[in-house]
TrEMBL record:
InterPro entries: LD-transpeptidase, LD_TPept_cat_dom, Transpep_catalytic_dom. Pfam families: YkuD (PF03734). Transmembrane segments: none annotated. Residues 84-217 form the L,D-TPase catalytic domain. The lineage of its organism: Bacteria, Bacillati, Bacillota, Bacilli, Lactobacillales. It comes from Limosilactobacillus walteri. This is L,D-transpeptidase. The active site is at residues 166, 193. Pathway: Cell wall biogenesis; peptidoglycan biosynthesis. Residues 32-56 have a biased composition (Basic and acidic residues). It comes from the Bacteria. Keywords: Cell shape, Cell wall biogenesis/degradation, Peptidoglycan synthesis, Transferase. Residues 31-56 are annotated as: Disordered.
Length: 218
């Protein structure tokens, strides 16, 4: 066998190897059903991304306005709430209305100022912490002569009128103390009661059932 024939046979052999190697790819490219199946399998394997759940304060009114409700949605209908209770977080300046473990409404609030406890040396709020229960004492307004301060729309939760939920404070003339009201939802400032916006306090006076659990932390 001469050299030319050997080269000719070798060329044919290389051509056959190349055809065998690229044959499956040509088949896949020419078959739209196969391409579709590959794409669908890739789509199915892609993880599904979902938006995270909105937080409990998504309806909070911003900026804070003590003339208005804390949220921009209606207050809860307590006739539809099975396990109602209230939690006050003194450090966060928030009062939460719960149905069981679910927050159903959040209110801006202001609790008692912090001062160093002479016994422990730790900072302690003028508002007592612990578990309490709403009491029967409530009304549209009051004025504490010794403190030279009053408020509207109050309801008691400890010591039958000593510790209350009530509106931002009023002065002797019945006008709201705007300097103190500006603290709502931002910092502490009361003598021990829980201050709320005017509409929030009014709702609490008119709707909090006697015996409702009030948990105060912070």
């Amino acid at each position: 066998m001469n050299l030319r024939v050997k080269h000719w046979i070798y060329g044919i052999f290389c051509l056959l190897v190349a055809i065998i190697a690229i044959g499956p790819e040509l088949h896949a490219a020419s078959n739209p059903d196969d391409k579709k199946a590959v794409v669908e399998s890739q789509v199915k394997e892609e993880p599904v991304k979902r938006e995270s759940a909105s937080n409990s304060e998504e309806h909070m009114r911003i900026p804070i306005d003590w003339h208005k409700s804390s949220e921009t949605i209606p207050y809860p209908d307590l006739s539809k709430v099975k396990h109602f209770w209230v939690k006050v977080d003194l450090k966060k300046n928030r009062t939460y209305l719960y149905d069981g473990s679910k927050i159903i409404y959040t209110m801006y609030s202001t609790g008692g100022v912090y001062a160093k406890d002479p016994k422990t040396g730790q900072m302690k709020s003028a508002t007592p912490t612990g578990t309490f229960y709403v009491q029967q004492e409530r009304g549209d307004n009051f004025f504490n002569q010794s403190l030279k301060e009053g408020a509207n729309y109050y309801v008691s939760w400890k010591n039958h009128g000593e510790y209350l939920f009530h509106s931002v404070p009023t002065k002797a003339d019945g006008q709201y103390n705007e300097k103190e009201a500006a603290k709502l939802g931002k910092t502490q400032g009361s003598h021990g009661c829980i201050r709320l916006s005017i509409p929030d306090a009014q709702w609490m006076e008119h709707n909090l059932p006697v015996g409702t659990k009030v948990e105060i932390v912070g």
